[in-house]
Design brief:
alpha+beta; Rossmann fold; 8-stranded mixed β-sheet; 5-stranded mixed β-sheet
Amino acid sequence: MKFTRPTGTQDILPEVQPYWEHILRHTTTLARQYGFARLDTPIFEKTQLFARGVGAGTDVVEKEMYSFRDKGGHELTLRPEFTAGTVRAYIENGMRVAPQPVKLYATGPAFRYERPQAGRFRQLHQFNAEIIGSPSPLADLEIMLLAWDIYETLGIQGLSFQLNSTGCPKCRPSYIEELKAHYQAHFDVICDDCKRRLETAPLRVLDCKKDQCQPVIAAAPKITAHLCSECADHFATLRSYLDDLGRPYTLNHRLVRGLDYYTKTVFEVWAEGIGAQSAVCGGGRYDGLVQLLGGPATPAVGFAAGLERMVMVMQAQGIAVPPLPTPPVFVVHLGKAARLPAVRLLVTLRQAGVGAQIAMGGSLRSQLRQANKRGARIALLVGEDELAQGGVTLRDLARGEQRYVPLGQVVAAVRERLG
């Protein structure tokens, strides 16, 4: 029986790993420079956490979650996103008594049963950042700047923000009533999904991709015209910061994101040259989520960035990354008597902090060929002559030079040659 990977998953092969390690190192370094601390939450949580936090009427909860009952009868779900788990950890671990706001980042896999396409998988990987405990537009700006800087400093070109405000519980209801009235007037035209969303998650109709709904969306009322004074001031202040810093953005009244917990600011980062799916990350403010999940009323804002999308954009834009380091020393042994001394030499090098590999067998020529293929800079030859003299032959593979080195001086000689 031949096994293949499940639909919507991928094998991240060794030749692609340089992108992944570069991105992970880059994102975590930036997050720490911004003052974010790492948080790791379980890969699965109680199903009700996502049903309540993400929203029962969202596609994520209704169609995309990997849920199961464990042997103890508990309803659990592989995390489809990070924010609900982060907020649960904030509440459960008493982080509200820490200096506010709390700035947290996380990275790891998430799981959504959706149609696989370019840069979109059923097992995906995300970098996630949250600022919990500040209502200030400066927190929104900080989150957006971190998202921007991640992509800009990776070398990705053609960046811009898509920006909107979804209001708050004070001003959103009146907008939703007007939106529903607009859609009811076109009820015979809109798709079945939008008819359902009008009752379960009305704002989501603005995110529909069906051709038949596009004219209705284009003519829909804009939520920014319905913002209360608090939301309008918040949005205007954030825009003034972006304008002053010269960060390009487009006001997009269709942008609502796909999760129920968003309030006020929502945004996406777009990049050029990757086809129709320009969005590379997104996020926004969720001031009611902490209270919804059992904590005190606490403002918060965050974003999530898909690592697969980062890799795809970098490859599409021809951005090279540094190769992963390989052990610079390769131990070559000739004859049965040389094997054990060669192994001892290998262990000595590694204990001294020198990366080294050993040939598994073969002729001198084949072992040196292995050393070159593995990117080694130095080959240490252990054979009959070397054993008799109590040393090794050190060969510089790039220069083709070699010399005899006493065994007790090998580590120093290798370090000197490697600089």
